[in-house]
Every structure is written in C-alpha cells, then in structure tokens.
Amino acid sequence: MLARLLLTLSVAALAPVAAQAQEKQPISGKTCEELLVQYKQLPFTDILPLDEGPVAIDGEAKDITIGFSQTAFNHPWRVSMLESLQAEACRHPNVSLVVLDGNVDVAKQSNDVRDLLVRGVDAVLLSPVESAALVPAARAVTDAGIPLIVMDRDVPAEKTLFIGQSNVTMAEQVAEKMAEDLGGKGNIVVLTGLKGSSPAVDRNKGMENVLAKYPDIKVLAVGDAQWIREPAVPLMEDYLTAHSDIDAVFSHAEESSWGAQLAVARANRCADGIRHYTFDGSNAGFKAVKEGTFGADGNYTPFIADIGLRAALYQLTGKEIPGATAYDAPGSRLLLPDSPTVVAANADEWIGRGWGDFEPTPDPCKK
Amino acid sequence: MPFDRDRLLLEAQGLTKAFDRNVVLKDVDLTLHAGEVHAIVGENGAGKSTLIKTLGGVHRPEAGKLLLDGQDTVLRSPADAIGRGIVVIHQELSLAPHLSVAENIFLGHFPRTRLGFVDRRRMRSETRSLLQRLNIDIDPQTLAVDLSIAQQQMIEIAKAISFNAKVLILDEPTAVLDESMVDTLFDLIAKLKAEGLGIIFISHHLEEIFRIADTVTVLRDGKLTGVSAVADIDQNWLVSKMIGRDFPEFSAGMRKIGEPALEVKGLTLPGVFEDITFTAHKGEIVGLAGLVGAGRTEVAQAICGVTQPSSGEIRIFGRKVRLRNPKAATRLAMAYVSEDRKALGLLPNRPVRENATISKLSRFRRFGFLRLGKERAYVGEMIRKLDIRLAGMNVEIRTLSGGNQQKVLIGRALAIDPRILIFDEPTRGVDIGAKSEIYAIMEELVSKGICVILISSELEEILRLSDKVVVLRRGRIATTLSRDEASESTIMHAAALAG
Amino acid sequence: MTTAFSSNVASFARIWRRVGVFAALILLIIAASMLSDRFLSVPNLLNILRQVAIVGILAIGMTFVILTKGIDLSVGSLLGISVVLYAGLLENYSMAVAIPLGLGAAMLAGLVNGIGVAFARIPPFIMTLGMLSFARGLAFIYTGGTPIPILNENFYSLGNGYIAGIPIPSLILLAVVAVSAVILSLTPFGRSVYGIGSNEEAARLSGVPVNLYKVIVYVISGLVSGLAGLVYASQLSIGTPIAGQGYELDAIAAVVVGGTSLFGGKGTVAGTFIGTLIIGVLANILNLTGVDPYVQQLFKGALIVVAVYVMSRTDRA
Q1: What CATH number does residue A140 fall under?
Q2: Which chain C residues are within 8 Å of B45, Cβ to Cβ?
C-alpha cells in the first residue's frame, strides 16, 4: 500500500504523462483488457446489441468522439457507470470518449455540456445532477443537431433517448419483501438518501405505496443519512435510545445500512434481531444479503452507460432503436426491466454481477 | 454667505449622564453660536468624550435638555444627530480605505442615474466643487488608503459639510497632525467659521486653543470648572482649571552621559532615508525631529529590525549588529514604542496583563509553561510603578484611555529590560496629566543610564527633554543640534527650509 | 468613568463567554431531559460524547487557527485523506505503520497550508480552500473513488471500544481538549497565538515569531484532522474518499457557538468544547423526539445565528 501511496502522489504529479500513455482508462484506472472481461458480466448487453469492431457511418469507419457528462465521480456507483461505458468503447477501436466530472454542481455540469459541444463531439451522453436545471444545456445539444442520450435521471427536454430504471418500482419490491418478512406488522425506522434528491424521493414514494397496504407497519422515525455511513450511526444510536421496539431499518443506501448495523452492535441490541432493507446493488451488498445481514438489496445497477453508448451509435449509423417509446416528457424513453431485488434465494446468482469489487464490512453483530 | 452671529445653534442645559451609579457628566451647560469655535478641554476622564457622545446622539442624558435652534430636542441616535446637522469627527477616522475620496464623501447617499446606477460623473464633479469651496487640494479619484492622515481628516470634514452640517464637533483633530498640517486644518476651520458653522473643538494642545478658539469650556471629573472667552484668559488659568499642577522637573543638559549605546553610520534605505549617522549614549535623550514624512519613524524601524536597511551599519554598545526582525532587537535589549498604537501597538481585545508581557514571555517561563502568578505579580508592580489607572489587569486594553494604553505599551517595552528605548510620538493622543507622567517615566529611565531616542512632532516636547536634537528632512539628516543650539526656530529652519 | 463603564460591559462579555455558553448548555440539557425521559441516561450521554468526537476534535484545531484570525477550510479534506490512508495502509501494514503515516500526511498538508499563509502571504481562506480541493482530489485518486473496507480488528476496537466505561473516541476528544487548553493558556506559544490574532503587526513588533507560530497553528489543525480521521475510520471501518465532506463548516459552527471570535484573539478551547456539545445535544434531542430532518436544519441554523448575535451584543463595548 505504500507503493500505492507513492503511485497516487506520482499520478497526481504526472497526470498529463499518464494520460498520454493511454494504457489505463481515466478515473476507473482499468485497462481495456480488464474492461472487456467485465463486459461479459454486464446485465444489459442484450439490449440494443452491437457487434465488436469499428463502427462505420455511411460505410466509412471515421473517428467517432462521444462526450459523457457525469454528475460527479464521488461515489463508486458513478465510477461503475463509467466502467460500463468504457467497456463498450473498448469494443470499438474508432470510438473515443471525452469524460467530464460535474462535481455535483448543476452550473458546472451545464458548462460541461456546452464545452463538449465546443470540442465537437459526435454525441452527448448525460447523467444529470438535477433534472430541471439542465434543460437549457440539453436544448443546446439538440439545437446543435447532435444525438443526446440522457441516463439515470431524466431531463424534461427534447432528446434522442432517456434510459432509466424506476426507483419507485424498485422500492416497492424491497418494501414488499420487508412487509412479507415482518408478517405485515411491526415498527420500522427509515434512513433516507440525501434529502431532496430524486432517488431518495422516489425510493420513499415506493415504500409509502407499499406501506399504505400494511396499516400495522409503523414508521417510528425518518432521518437523513445522506447515502453514507457516518450520519447513519448517530441517527440510529439516537433511535435505539428513543425506541426499544424497532423491527427493521429501511435504508436508501447500503452504506447507511452498515452504519445502522454498527450502531445496533454498539448499543448491544444485536439480540433484537433488527432487519435491514437497503438499496444499491453492490457485490458487497449481495454478499451481506447472502450472509443474512441484509434482508433485501434493491438492485439499482449502474451498468447502463454501455446501452447509452450503443444508443448513440445506433442513432449515428441511422439504425432504429428498438423498444424506444414515447412517454409523458419530450423525446422517447427506453425503460429498463427492473433487475430482481436480491434476496437470500437469488444472492448467489447475482454476486459478481453487481458493482464494486470490495468486500462487505464484517457484520459487527457477528464478531 | 451672510449669517447671524447671535444665532444660538445649540444650547445644552444641565446635562447629566451616569453609567450604573457612576456619574460621568454632572450638570454641564454649553452654548454654541453660529460662527463660533468653542474649545472643550479637560484631562482624560473629565467627561469630554461623554459630552461629545451626548451631543452626537450616542448617549442619552439622564437629566438636562438640549436645544437646537431654540427647539427642545432629543437625539435618538448618531444618525438622528447627523440628520439634524450635528456631525462628530472622531479621532479614529472612518473612511473606507479602498474607496475613492468621492465615493467616501457620498457613501450612503450616492447620486443615481435614471437607471439607478451610481452616477460617477456627478459624484466626481460635486466632490470637486465641494473640495474647491473648502480649499482642499485633493483629487476626488484618489483612494482613501493613499491619503495622509491629515488629508483623511479633511475628507471627513468635507463629508460632514456634504451632509449640510450646522454643528461640527472635532474630537482632538490635531493629535495626529504635525505642525504644517495643523495650519492647513486651522485654515479650513476658519473657512467653515466664516460660513457660519458652529464648531466644537477638543484639544490637548493648549496653545492651539489660543490660536483658534473663541470660547473655552473646561471640564474636570465630569463637572464644569470654567467657561470663558479665550481673549480673557491665559494658559495658567487653563492648566489650573484642568489639573492644578505643572510638569515635572526636566533634567536635560544636566544628565550624566555615559558610553555610546547606539551608533548609526551611513544607514540607507533608498527612497526612504539616506546616510543617517548619529550616536546616542547611555543616560542620554536624543530627540529626532522633523516634519511628518521626513523619515523619522522609518529610521527608528530600521534600527529595530522591522525593516532592513540596504547599507550602513548599526553598533550597539560597540558591537556591530544586523537585525533581521524585531525579535533580534528585543534580544539585544532594544525596544521600540510605536507611534501608531492602534496598528502596531495594542492587542486590543486582550487583557492589559497579556499586552504588557507579550514582549518577554520567557521571563515567566519554567519547563516550557508560563507561571501566571509570577506574571501577575510582575504586571501588578508595573501598574503601580507607571501609575496606570484601570479596573484590573484583566480588562481588555482597548477599554483604557489613550494615556493609560500608552503607559501599558511603555511597560511592555520595559519588560525586556531595555538598554536602548525608542519612543515614537509617546504623548500623541494622551491627555495632559498622562503626558506629564510619561515625561517623568522618561526622566527616570535616563537617570538609570538607559539610552532614549525620542521622536516627536511636538517641538516643545523635544526641547524640554532632549540633550541633543537630530533634525531630519526628506530622509536625510538636516542638522544635529546641541541642547544649547536647539530652539523652536533652529529646528523648524532645519526641518523645513535649509539643506 | 466611561472607562469604568466599558470595562463593566467588557467583563460582562467575558463572563458570558465563560459562563453564558455553559449556561446555554445547561438550559438545553434541562429542556432536553423534559422532552424525552430517555435523554438523561448514561448510555445516551455517552453516545452524545462519542457522536461529537469527530467534529469536536476538528473544532479544537479550528479554534487555534481562528484565534490567529485565520480559517482552515481544508480540515474535512485532511480528515478524508487520512481516512483513506489508514484504510489503504491497513490492507498490508499494521496500525504502527498506518497511524503515523495517516497523521503525518494530514500534518504535511497542514504544513503546506501554514507555509502558504505565513510566508507566501496567501489569505488563509484561499490557501485552505485550495487545499480542501487538492486533498480531496488526492483521496479520490488514491482510492479510485471506491471505499476501502477496513478489516483490522484492533483498529475497529480503537473506534468502538471503551476504557473505564468511556468510549475511546470521547477520550481522544477529551485529551485533545485538555492538551490544547494547557497549550493555549499556559505556554508562551499559546499566549502568542492570542496576540497574533489580536494584532499581528503588534505581536511581530513585540518580538513574537509570528510566521513560525502561524505555521505551527496550521500543522496543529492538520494533526487534529488526522486524529479526527482516525476516529472516523476506526469507528466506521471504511475508508471512503468522501469522508469528512462539509465538516469544516460544522467545526466552524462549533467554534463560533463556543464564543470564539472570527476576528481573532478571543476565545477558548473550553468554549469550543461546550459549543460542540450544544450542537451535539441539540441534534440528539431532535432525533430522540423524532423531529423531521428538514426541520432539524432550521434549529441548527437558528442556533448558530442566535449564538453569534448574543456574542456580538455583549462584545460591543
């Protein structure tokens, strides 16, 4: 790891040199060789299939540059999304990528998109920080006559295609599983993702849809755990102090669930048998489901940007995009099938196909 | 503009102000006519500031009344006072440093264009005509930060005029000015007087009162001890009403001068001062005279390691030294008491105790830790010796009067057990009582064989205390005068005229 | 006279700084114990003391910096860089290697801050804003954006264990508070820190080695950021590159609520500690009573503004 430290420092110092080498892809740090192995595990390669090899437009395999404006790279989920994109790009030698980091800032991302236009990209892939604020930037892309593929969160503006999964139906699946495990009766606490963010709003909506059917499940408290571990710990500690009868924790993110479990262990409440229902779809999360720490893990996969790239290439080569339908916003939509929620029964099948290659945190209650 | 000299602008009757049970102003009367310059004198704590603050709307009196133009008036706030034409120019000037002269004058009431933008053109032209009217020769576009203190003061006064002030209250305006600037200020005051303004003027320089004031009011311990037309009184009358005692005995010329303590040879910092050479001995006070801007402070700071001269040498007790920073000077037992208390002296929001000992904390250190008991004892002794008047050594120094602040800073310099002490304008902004005490402290220091350098714009001070006077002019030594040669005219001649 | 009056006001301000903040904490505790019967239990109080440890430790370092009239916006990022280093190094090395290197990296960054501020004369706000971004970037590069799990058992006990019934993170916080209080009030360095904040030029002229001391202050801030990172990483068993994002503002809030002036030269670590507890107790009671997270933000914001308002009133002598 000392070597890694030195490497980090030298990468920081020699960043331009490293980029020239073209060996490792930026940000993910993976080589094409590694990415192509990973490609075989991606969940949606059969949607908009595209053969390996150069992509010809009007019979000519010119250089194609695709711009990708990502919300930020502050979370491994976002890096994994990029990996699926880079893996697809590695399959086509005449396709290169320009990747920009929006830094969770709508203003910066708006500028990023315009910068991509200035650099003359052939298509723009956009995974927006926030829906409404990026409408003008999206218009600039369509006005320039360039394909615009929006991924994950939608933008209410004209576009080629929106590719997304439904957080609402996914949360319904997870909440159903929870209600089933509780026998339709019990007390829960909720740890949301960053309040006001659209996935947090949608996951909450899905949960509420289900709970409306189960009047005997009571929500004792709702706290903002901001998708991460640290804020979840004090919240859960305080809930455990305030309530002696918590049956389950419905958390919007695996990290927050780990934080909650840590609080349970520290409060010596492991014997309470509090169950955790969570989201994210990481390999670590799936392993935790298998080990019984989590009751269910909503499989919100980041591996959708390969579809985005293929959709852009379909458009550039004049191919029809099968499955694209009109919907209640401008442009058309490709709604991905919900990946099944991962529970004990199907965990083995999914381990290795989630995102992230890190190990789960050891369950502090099993120490 | 003609005006009625008998018009009574302001009349205060029986003003009384107390804080808690502490009566600081008791039954004070004051009248001010149009075209009158009315001086208020008194020692620190006599109630002058309270009186000004009461007239300026800062304090509300417990008793008494205030008549403006014959109308019974209650001032609710400083803004209210300004609205009624009473403007106070405080000693601490308050211009915004990075705004231009014009912007400072119109700050808060900018002229606007039709679109609501600041009308810069109109602001500049109005400023120019205002300054012309007042005979102030300053470009409206100059930034305040580039103005001298005297110029800043004039701009503050011009600003007051732009508010249509009828009564102008000047709180020790001359404390920060040298002689030539005082003349300019007095010209301006005469001009305003001729326009019919009433001016209240506070000063510690008694001779100024005789130069400019029509009437004088003396306060002591919050009470009125004398009111008179200036034409009917002399200095003795004033001093007796104020303190009833005189300055200490001065020993200049009769001192036992020892070996050379500080030798400066050819000290040069291009553009600032050049070829400065003089010697100061143990037990001697060397006066450093000259106009403001002659380079006196700069020379002192170079000697003390604040700035680095480019050439020349400094010897301390015969040893050649190079001082890279003020700490190096401290190690050689050389201390500097700055002329700019606020910027370079006070740790304003720290207790007196900490202000006094910051220069030599190692004095109280054992095994790396401060011994607070020892520090308290030391500061207690200092407070007694320097006769510093305060509620306790743990009060913040900013709450003290100028004179007491200055004494604490002198105490700070003494804490390093100095062999050479440079006083830069030591009595600026302190009252007459404290001034006499600071003189006594300096007398005692030289009697113990300490070498003192005294920088002052007050010729009287230089003449009273110095054994030898070095006069600077435009960064060079104009002349060095022995005690016998030195007089007001020889010094002024060298400082301003001769080469 | 006027002097006596203003010194009365000044001493009132001083008493408020000492006692007022403390009284506010006591009032809050009384209110909290009336709102929830579970508040005044030993486990809950120990929880609070542990919950405030990370921000509390950062706030103590921040107090040093703010006392010199500076600001250190990089503490959250320095915490972040130390956290990923602990996690990364613990994959292959022991705690004896990981902890000094993590602390050292944070101190090194503090040293760079200090040199930038003291010698290159870059305004502290700008210098540490730059470091905020730079150090966070390093943390992302080092981890590749992916959190590194920490599996070391001893390290876990450091963050989650107890000594004499008190959580270890709380003990670290208390130790930092105690050592800092002694340094600030009883050493020439600490005394000079106040002097520098009160009037830097005057301190320099009095022979205080101002530049050196400013560098030391930023190194201290780096060191305690690394210590806070140690608590973070060992409690949560994960080295995430986003660790500590935004904590600089929580630390500044604790310092300010604790009565330290942002204009330098005024304040104590004891005040900061109490300020930290006030914010911690407030968050705790709002959670215990199940107040909506949106509304919790209002309380925190109002607390900061009211505290500073009261302070500025008593300060205007």
Answers
A1: 3.40.50.2300
A2: 1-3
